[in-house]
Amino acid sequence: MKENLPVSRAAEILMQRDNITLLCHRRPDGDTVGSAFALYYALQMLGKEVRVLCADPLPEMYRYLYPDYTPSRVLEWPVEYVVAVDVATADLLGGLEEKYGQMVDLCIDHHPSNTDYAALTCLWAGAAACAEPAAAIIKAIGLPIAGRIAECLYTGLATDTGGFRFSNTTAATMRLAAEIMESGVDTARLNTCIFESVSKAKMLAEARMMSALQFYENDRIAVMPVTLAIRAETGVTGEELEDVAGIPRKIEGVLLGITIKEHEGECHISLRSKEPVNADQIAAAFDGGGHRFAAGCTIRASVEEAARLLVEEARKHLPKEQA
Amino acid sequence: MKENLPVSRAAEILMQRDNITLLCHRRPDGDTVGSAFALYYALQMLGKEVRVLCADPLPEMYRYLYPDYTPSRVLEWPVEYVVAVDVATADLLGGLEEKYGQMVDLCIDHHPSNTDYAALTCLWAGAAACAEPAAAIIKAIGLPIAGRIAECLYTGLATDTGGFRFSNTTAATMRLAAEIMESGVDTARLNTCIFESVSKAKMLAEARMMSALQFYENDRIAVMPVTLAIRAETGVTGEELEDVAGIPRKIEGVLLGITIKEHEGECHISLRSKEPVNADQIAAAFDGGGHRFAAGCTIRASVEEAARLLVEEARKHLPKEQA
């Protein structure tokens, strides 16, 4: 790893440039767009020519951050200085990699896995969100954390921490959120946009999946099938189903939640456990793996057969019940 | 209102007492038990005899705050100094009101509606949670915000703010959470206990309700029936259904979510809207009311008929669709 660029230096460099292209990672989330647009608005206030580019469309749910932004309008501009925001590796640029992968001048990031692909990298590996180094750079530029900049940064913080709930959240994350709130941003409104929004297809799919929950071993094991029929009948996308594996473990008393996603010819299994059940060991019995409380494996069988095999194995890993 | 007691004075008074009874409000939530137990552990560290009492059983989901606490053991102690925690009115003491309602020496609270029923009141009306004045008192006593005290305070903050999402959350709330995190508390684990926990009955009831969603006016109105059959077949309690009214509005594109709870002979209606739909006006058409985005009414009709009447009225309040 080359030397890590201090935020003060990153701020100086950005202030010296007149035409800056900000790049988000593919499949953009709230942190990459929030951090990029925070810098976009800050640099615009300095009179720079700035644009934000992303290989995939900017998410509609974060439209409040860029209500009037039309990237196509600026695509023909000359590329002068290129800044990747929250992009850990060049291939995460997606469709932008071919054009920009070798010409990233500065990368602002928080992923410990950053591959140092840019000419200069300002990496805060302990930060919960890229919004944290982005905020520090904006402050080093001398601009206040307020208005739309603050909304962008809050969106980055809130989305990457699951609403300040995940273990990546630090005291510094909370203090930056406090600063943002003090600037007068209506964070309750932002939280509604971020957390109270689900597609009709996903809600109907979740209803189907939750209705189909099966319980075993005195309700200590819950199995949730995600069949091809549910996907076909509701129109839910694979991406929308990425976070459903947490559902069965939420149920009081459930020590192991098993989510079975049906694919052609095989099932993809997600295991989520609570103390003292080790999900990793159960996944290992099917040549899978993971962590103590979250693991996965693939089973080439029907949903019903996969469920039977998994429950049979999982039984051995449950604690003895008290009489 | 009598004079508001400063936290420094509340701390002095508590330090002078040897036997302190802390009272929670009835139907205890995370803030009343979190704030009371934070004070309990703090006062125990000072060598005081302390107990926490509540008219209703302490919630099992917050058991991590009081793993070894058995209130019955201390019920026979002499009552010397009585402190109500997060209790806005004497009748919120529930079954404890008769014995203690007239003898509350000190009330520590954050509700602007506090009726000043105690001899002394330390009220932080701008605080999101009672955990905020409780923390200030503990600091004024000279104790660190750490360990189990910090876990209790975090639980109060996180529950009363819906995980720092509601509009009552302030910069001070976030800064206190930052202090708590700095003390080394595993807030991610606490968040799992607080937010990732739902009864089997409630999950199955939600699945049924979500499956039964009906959509009108190009999916801009969503109606969710909560029938007596759903309640009977899942065993979900009325209390568990209190927060379901937010579900239909979560759906992208829905401008008005209507939740219809069937009771004997009538339906209780919750309306939740988004800009520009005024829920209050729709409720008013049925002699109900509320706020712009959250209102309610009662309709003496079947679920189907109530839905028909509500949708008919709601149509008039939707914006014109763009061609």
Care to give the gist of this entry?
Two copies of one chain form a homodimer. Chain A is 35% helix and 17% strand.
Structure report:
- Two copies of one chain form a homodimer.
- By secondary structure, chain A is an alpha/beta fold.
- Chain A has helices spanning 7-16, 30-45, 97-100, 131-141, 147-160, 171-182, 187-195, 200-211, 228-234, 279-284, 303-315, and strands at 19-23, 49-53, 81-85, 106-109, 120-123, 214-216, 221-226, 256-263, 266-273, 289-290, 294-299.
- A six-stranded mixed beta sheet of chain A has the order 6-7-8-9-11-10, sandwiched between helices.
- In chain A, a hairpin with a 2-residue loop joins strand 8 (256-263) and strand 9 (266-273).
- In chain A, helix 2 (30-45) packs antiparallel against helix 5, helix 5 packs across helix 7 (187-195) and helix 8 runs antiparallel to helix 9.
- The longest helix of chain A is centred in the first third of the chain and has 16 residues, at 30-45.
- The first copy, chain A, is elongated and about 65 Å long.
- The termini of chain A are far apart.
Overall form of chain A: elongated
Spatially, the strands of the biggest sheet of chain A line up as 6-7-8-9-11-10
Measured as a percent range, the helix fraction of chain A is 25-40%
Give a count of the beta strands of chain A, DSSP E runs of length 2 or more: 11
